[in-house]
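batch job 7 of whatever, protein = Galectin
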Amino acid sequence: MPVETLSCVRCVKMDYDVQEGTISRDFIEYDFAEDALDFETQLAEARDVKFTQTLSEHLSIGAHIVCTGTPSDDLPWFAVNIGTGDPDGRGDIAVHFNVRLPQCYVVRNTRRHDKWGIEETTAFRLFPFKMDRPFTIEVLIEEKETLWAVDGEHYCSYSHRNPSPFAATWVQVAGVRNATLKVDKIAEYPALAAPPVEVPFRQSVDAAPELSEKNSWRPNVIASLSNGVPEGQQIIIHGRLRPLLHSFAIDLMDYGREWPYPNVHVHVNVRAHVDSQKDRQLVVLNAWLGAWGPERRQRTARLVPGDKCTFRIIRGGDEWSVYANDVLIGELEYRAAPAGVKAIRVRGDFYPDDIFLCPASNSPIREEKTA
């Protein structure tokens, strides 16, 4: 029987940033090892198709680079480079963002003294680029990393190496004929993101959604909680687990944004990749208030990859209680004023299809109905 598609699993380095890609039949027999070795040869074909902007001053924290363009069939790879030295020769590249459309993934790397480092390919969302479809890439320079967004949605991050982008003297786009570049400063990233959707309130956990509710839930979503999570209420997240489950996180934050980094009052991180042969997944609870605090770790989640799942985070008198499918999987004491929670973020291998607030019952376990 012929195979139409092949799902690939990327190498993973972060806790909850793995996404699946789909490769067409034409590339099932593609030699990825050879691809990784000679990508410079293929990129050389695009060196005559490039746009370079010299920087009048060094990049600093908050520097914002916007690149637009449209990939074409005859140039299946393109790159955004931030570097020093000769941009037309073998100058150093602090950040190399290489989009490989035939293989449906993006490589990040650094070149120093004509040698490439270790490639990074993990991402927070599915591959967003398509032939002949315009794109907008945003690059945010942060203290320790660069953040990359595509069409207003955060895509990946890349930690600074040597050389650092703070020493860069130019920015370049190669392999895109209609490329544009703009460099400025911003106060919030992604600058082109749509306003976060508001989490609705319902009278009970079983109440039907109002007609006015807009179903905008998608993977790696950030949503607003304008009135917070009042004491005695709970936030419900229905969704589906990724079949190849690695990890995911649910964060209750004080701001609905990616950067400047919000404080995270409750960080619920489920890690299926740690001792994956065990029948329960590891649950890590923590808070980020300018820095991570002490973790609370327990192997309490019993989740089935690919299945539907419901999480509840209940605000109690002194702590946050977290349930998965009506089973308590952890509690985290207040580490900041709970009234400060104003947003929720779901990131990783848990894909939400409904999020709402409602009153918390005395017990999250429903009683069986009798005839």
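notes: The chain has a mean pLDDT of 87.
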